Amino acid sequence: MSQHTLSVIVEDQPGVLARVSAMFSNRGFNIHSLAVGPTHVEGRSRITLVVDAPEMEQLKKQLHKLVNVIKVTELDQVESLESEVMIARIACDPVNRGEVGDTAALFGARMIDMGPDSLTFEISGAPDHLARFLENIRPYGIVDLVKSGRVAMRMVGDNSKVSA
Amino acid sequence: MTQKTYTGSNSLLQSLEHEGVEVIFGVPGGAILPAYDPLLDSPIRHVLARHEQGAGHMAEGYAMATGRVGVAMATSGPGATNLITPLQNAKMDSTPLVAITGQVGTSAIGSDAFQEAYTTGLAMHCTKHSYLVTNADDIPDIVHEAFHIASTGRPGPVLIDLPKDVLNQPTTWRKPTLAGLPGYRPTAHGHPKQVKAAIDLIESAQRPVLYVGGGVVRAEAASELKTFAELANVPVVTTLMARGAFPDSHPLAMGMPGMHGTYTATSAIQKSDVLVSLGARFDDRVTGDVDAFAPNAKIVHVDVDPAEIGKVKFADVPIVGDAKLIISALTERLIADRGDRPAPSREDWFQTLREWKASKPLSYVQDEDGPIKTQHFIERLHKATGGEATVVAGVGQHQMWASQFWGFSKPKTWINSGGLGTMGFAVPAAIGAKTANPGQPVWALDGDGCFQMTFQELITASAEGIPVKVVVFNNGGYGMVKQWQHLFYGGRISASDLSGPVPDYPGLAEAMGCVGMRIDRPEEIDSAIDKAIVIDDRPVVIEVVCDPDEMCFPMVPAGGSNDHIVMGPDEL
User: Fold this and answer.
1) Bridge partners of A49?
2) What is the number of CB-based contacts under 8 A between chain A and chain B?
């Protein structure tokens, strides 16, 4: 199974999310990540899903058949802007406190909470940026972590000219 | 007398009247009670079913006989759960249906209140759409949307769940609009480029076949189909859901394809070089092994539902839109492109088809003093009625024989449960069909197994004055199950035997206010039918004791290739 990112514009109504997510669970496919929020148009929401599924054509058509679904777009992961938000609480002691803070700062993570034996950071960006941050911060010890669903949008510019 | 407050219930009834509803099939109960009060003063007829499943199938029978939206009504909880089977049945067979269910009061929702069920959740997967109404002011728009969704695009069932306090809420009625459906835009007209591509393929084909499905019936495109088939000079096969969409007596008619289809229809598809699917969905009962299905054919797939295109089989020429409009467009394109050239004669192809028809016909043997064969009874009934009747079937052997041996001439005169295969469909669906067209004879051809699932609706038929005729082909068991056990389980008959002295079918029929008859010899068939035909004031039940060992052929065993059609038990 491969991973696909879908952007689904829906009417902002009760039950829509259940109908959309059921389309995947019915077929035994897992939703890897999910983000829902209002769009700039009144009464319209965007559901961004990352799903594991063997092929998307039939699923996209079935999603489109839902009466409250207005538009379904599959986003190519290379040609789209993807972003996630993560809050991570990292263990530290008086000795490595500064080192943990420096490492986080290298990835542009913002410290938002400080405890006697932990520092809490907020970081947002492309999924692979967050993954690299985690890889480097993991050795200090992750106490707790929360990650948003992925949001994505089709890119109009040339990716190679934009720095990460 | 004080002026009654105008409530959600009044608005519901007014909305249904606005949609042109003439009959509701339903069963009352606590949560839906408010809606039943204004129903007393409404011109809409209510047919009181004896079970909500019956009400749902009646609404389906009504819809399939008329092409209009059928309406079923039930209370919350068990009333709603009993509607689930008809909803799924309607979804599978694309039948326009609106189901109205009561719900516990909004403040009690989610509290495990008496007769509470999460109806919209239960219905999510067996409806085209569903609504939970939370404000009575929304009722006119929601009812209008529900009828629009049920009847347009690919038709299907829509459920409206109405909490009791919403039904009691003071409100006003206003003319509804369709402003609220930004995501629902069914395509009607086929793309002209695709229509042209289809005609190019069809005109140059040596062995084309029109593979006609239930969509042609739903789109009311039978006359357009006949015009096109004759003009294009292409043979026609009609699926189980399309029986009647093309007259069986027509020289281009090859019958039904698939698991129990005619040798000619199934083989014509297999050998075709261009297969034109019109409102059909390549169901597994038609295709058998998909990889071996129509292996050499280029496929033109016409369907109003884009999700059907390519779902089972790759379509070389997909055309999304309404079957009636697209078949008309195909005809126009054909006339324009062909000009003065004659139609392709395809003499070799038609010769082959004629040979198959002659050498591999549908067959059975009725011994003069042997047990009655269901097929024989169906043929006698067709003769006695001149085919001028609506035929409604349950599910199983009798359904296949009805489809095979009733020579259909008109659409909407064949009503059965195709996709879901719902046993017990026939009796209530026949009541719905008869309610729709009281002047049309309606014959339910049922099996004993099916009959025992829903026969109590004959009480409805008697009480409401709906004189349907029901034939119970009693072979003492679930015939199709027995057949599979004979063929694939070494003859071990497990839990499929219903033989024995009970029930006494004529006695049961009489107890429900019907005329009951029982025949078990071939020479009794004609007089029983004649007797039933003249009875018009009550339902009639004829128990036909028939051969318990008869099997349904031709047959392509499930999942097998359609190249291997078994014509009789000795070929297995």
Assistant:
1) A6, A34
2) 39
* B129, B307, B310: residue with CB nearest A67: B129
**If we measure between CA atoms, which residue out of B412, B409, B370, B416 comes closest to residue B392?**
B416
- Full-model pTM: 0.96
Exposure string of B28-42, with b = 16+ CB inside 10 Å and e = fewer, is bbebbebbbebbeeb
Q: Under CATH, to which class is B374-553 assigned?
A: alpha beta
Thinking of the domain B8-167, which architecture would CATH place it in? 3-Layer(aba) Sandwich (3.40)
How many domains would you assign to chain A?
2
Quote the domain boundaries for residue A134: 81-151
Per residue in B176-229, pLDDT (tens digit) is: 988 889 999 999 999 999 999 999 999 999 999 999 999 999 999 999 999 999
Residue B516 has pLDDT above 90, yes or no: yes
Residue B1 annotated among the catalytic residues of the structure: no
Instruction: Please report whether residue A58 resides in a domain.
Output: yes
pLDDT tens digits for B42-59?
999 999 999 999 999 999
ipTM associated with this complex: 0.90
In a domain, A63, yes or no: yes
Read off the pLDDT of residues B443-463 as tens digits, 9 standing for 90 and up: 999 999 999 999 999 999 999
The verdict on A96 and A119 lying in the same domain is: yes
Nearest to B12, CA basis, from B51, B49, B41: B41
CATH number of A33's domain: 3.30.70.260
SS3 for A23-78 is: HHHCCCCEEEEEEEEECCCCCEEEEEEEEEECCCHHHHHHHHHCCCEEEEEEECCC
Any catalytic annotation for residue B451? no
Span B192-358: which CATH code? 3.40.50.1220
* A21 in contact with chain B, both atoms CB, cutoff 8 A: no
Instruction: Say if residue A141 is in the same domain as residue A89.
Output: yes
